[in-house]
Amino acid sequence: MIELGRVLDDVFDGEPGADGAVDAVYRRADEMRRRKIRAVISAGLASAAVVVAVGYGVATLVIPRSAAGTPGADPAASGSAEPPDQVLAALRPVVGDDLMVLPRHPSRGAGWRQYLTVGTDGRSRGLIEVSVYDAPDDLCFPVLADAGACARPEHRDGVDFVRYAFDSDVDWQVNEVIARRRADGRTIVVLATGERGTGSAAAGRPPLTGAQATEVATAGTVAAAFDGGEQCNGPDPVCPVLRVRVPVPAPVDD
Amino acid sequence: MDSDDEALREFVTKRYPRLRRSAFLMGGDWSQADELARDTLARLITDSQRGVVADPDAYAFGELMAAFRRRPGRREHIFVAAPDCPGAQPRTVLILDALHRLAPRCRAVLVLRHVDGFAVDETADLLGMDDAQVERYEAAGLAAMETMLATSG
């Protein structure tokens, strides 16, 4: 068998010298390191620019015009047409300091309000949608497992309510409360939807617990925040799409 | 300069000629071999200083062979002798020509086993093959080289 090592040795007869090669290798390594540092810094700057741009875009979308106006200007004092949001005022003490609640554009319509929630880490924690319906005395609170059955509601301060929780799909977790005032049939629905598609039970948790959603839905101030003529009974495409629909009749045109 | 840096510099000083020779056998061009050996060792230095190199020899020779896999193949091999040296000897050209008629992986096995002195399992790790493949390539390559050199001899 051929002795390849010895045969190939002949090939190296014409090998060029290697003077200064090691220093050249080290110079090249320094150059590579500097290039890598520049690339990391450039990537960091680019990321920061993207974060700033996205932050600006989000702020422009979610902060209401009254809050984004002239610094120091009081919308009420300046005669702004936007009335104070009483639903938001009722929500904020319920969620406490852990979440920031901001009106989400479009933030309101006839019979509904919607809010974006942001955690202390700056991440979105999902949506809170509050809507109002006129419901009859014999409102049948839906039972998820049985379309023909009515749920037995709980009671608080003259309000009948039922809570619904959806947490089996971590990518779409929802807490919903339907609360009907016995006095006038005004029915408040609070829909708290966690951030969608996080793949994590914790990250996708709804911004309101069932108890918090109940507190909001049964608060007299929230029902009072809607004008008497506001309601989502009709097939209004802008009203929130509920996870559990309120079985109310559509309004009859006069 | 601390002891790690000294050891690394010593490694680079010793391995540079070996790497360049291996690169020359793989590519048949001393200037290309020089370039690849410097580039491989420069990457070895930066990665060693980041603490991500476990075995410098495996890293250096593995990277060198990977560089040849990434390079586009050429239909025609041109062997370049260094200036002012007897590199253009007919025997040298014949040997390189025979070596370059082998498939690249076969050539890599012969270079790592018979020039760089790696064991079969080490060669298999460097080229991402199993031991049996290395042995098959080696046997086939040696037989082919023997035939070609005898024919041209």
TrEMBL record, chain A:
Keyword vocabulary terms for this entry: Membrane, Transmembrane, Transmembrane helix
Transmembrane segments: 37-59
UniProt KW Transmembrane keyword: yes
Protein name listed in UniProt: Uncharacterized protein
Organism field: Mangrovihabitans endophyticus
UniProtKB/TrEMBL annotation, chain B:
GO process terms (BP): DNA-templated transcription initiation
Keyword Transferase: no
Residue ranges annotated for the RNA polymerase sigma factor 70 region 4 type domain, each copy included: 94-137
Keyword list, A-Z: DNA-binding, Sigma factor, Transcription, Transcription regulation
Highest taxon listed in the record's lineage: Bacteria
InterPro entries: RNA_pol_sigma-70-like, RNA_pol_sigma70_r4_t2, RNA_pol_sigma_r2, RNA_pol_sigma_r3/r4-like
GO molecular function: DNA binding; sigma factor activity
Similarity field: Belongs to the sigma-70 factor family. ECF subfamily.
The protein's name in its UniProt record: RNA polymerase sigma factor 70 region 4 type 2 domain-containing protein
Record lineage: Bacteria, Bacillati, Actinomycetota, Actinomycetes, Micromonosporales
